[in-house]
Design a protein that fits this description.
Layout: H1 2-10, H2 17-49, H3 52-63, H4 65-76, H5 81-98, H6 102-120, H7 127-167, H8 169-185, H9 190-197, H10 201-221, H11 223-237, H12 243-248, H13 254-270, H14 290-300, H15 304-308, H16 318-345
Length: about 350
């Protein structure tokens, strides 16, 4: 057993929730961002501007989402070059076999293939053959064997959330908005979670509302401590920057969470806001304005996952645009500081509690 532990340590194979549930998951979201998400935006712009070369560029970027996710995961696991490059084939196979639930299949299979590849890397004199062969054979074999059921299960769970939101828009609007918003601020990837579940439609709209409530809420309510730099870094970057402060004083999280509980059902019940773009947008909030952009691209050209669940392109009217602006920017910017003012009056939040290092 000691020899096995020493071997794992030498190969940098670490079985921890942080490495797989935070590092690998977060990296997968970055891979998706750099392929599917940006490709969707570019293609949609090309379609609207009638520029075929932009449509082609976006389509090519979207097509390599599987390899991009797998390579990103391998990088997070600190895989050596031969393993890292071999994961491109693994990612393509897992994403293709996983269907609508491809991202979850890629996450699981790329982790397994990467760790096996790391285990055999530089252990033989023919490493240039053995390492890529082991990585690809194990990864693609698993893709053929387990990716379809993994994809089916993930898609079914996402569909269940979407159906439940349609049936109970108020309560599910609160639940989805609050939970995804919390995940956005925690050191895990809400974007990857939404992508894994294929969270689109009305549930996707609630997720966008929750994420925007956290980002815009923290950015505006901490303005007097962090000024314009904090407004931009949290409002267009990530509310995760507040995690050290949340650990010190969890009560600073009350206002953003309550804000998401308010804007979520407003999105689902009043404006019926749907996010039918790439599912990753549901968990992005105002990071690079990806949440609102996802809603917009969903109006013009719904993603494959959204289409499978009955979505279709719409001509958005003034009411749709009003809802998007209110839910994503205006309401969080107004409600969250007011709720935080109450917390200050109660002595739960004090000057300096929201100050970023």
């Amino acid at each position: 057993m000691e020899k096995f532990k020493a071997f794992l340590k030498r190969k940098n194979i670490v079985f921890t929730a942080r490495r797989y549930g935070i590092d690998a998951l977060g990296a997968m979201a970055q891979g998706l961002f750099c392929s599917l998400l940006i490709g969707t935006i570019i293609r949609t712009l090309g379609q609207q501007l009638k520029l075929q070369f932009l449509v082609d560029i976006g389509t090519y970027a979207m097509a390599v989402s599987g390899p991009a996710m797998a390579v990103a995961i391998g990088h997070a696991l600190q895989a050596p070059p031969m393993v890292l490059f071999s994961l491109a084939a693994v990612g393509w196979a897992a994403n293709a076999e996983g269907g609508a639930g491809g991202p979850l299949a890629v996450l699981i299979i790329a982790i397994v293939a990467a760790e096996f590849g790391k285990a055999v890397s530089k252990e033989t004199k023919v490493d240039i053959l053995v390492t890529p062969a082991v990585t690809i054979l194990i990864g693609v074999a698993l893709a053929k064997l387990i990716a379809p059921p993994i994809g089916t299960a993930a898609n079914a769970f996402g569909l269940m959330i979407d159906s439940a939101t349609k049936l109970r828009p108020f309560w599910m609007g609160i639940a989805v908005s609050v939970l995804v918003g919390i995940a956005l601020t925690l050191p895990i990837s809400s974007a990857a979670i939404c992508s894994v579940l294929g969270l689109t439609g009305l549930a996707g709209g609630a997720a966008v509302a929750g994420c925007c409530a956290q980002m815009v809420g923290f950015a505006v309510m901490s303005f007097r401590e962090n000024r314009w730099g904090g407004l931009v870094s949290q409002g267009l970057g990530t509310s995760m920057l507040q995690m050290p402060n949340i650990v010190k004083n969890p009560r600073i999280w009350i206002a953003p969470i309550l804000t998401s509980a308010i804007t979520g059902p407003i999105a689902t019940c009043i404006f019926r806001m749907q996010m039918n773009g790439a599912a990753i947008n549901s968990g992005m909030g105002t990071c690079g304005l990806c949440g609102p952009i996802g809603v917009w691209t969903g109006w013009l050209s719904p993603s494959e996952t959204a289409v499978e669940r009955g979505a279709s392109a719409i001509n958005a009217g003034a009411f749709d645009w009003l809802g998007l602006i209110l839910i994503c920017i205006v309401l969080p910017a107004v409600i969250c500081p007011l709720l935080n003012l109450v917390c200050r009056k109660l002595g739960w939040v004090k000057d300096g509690d929201l100050k970023l290092d």
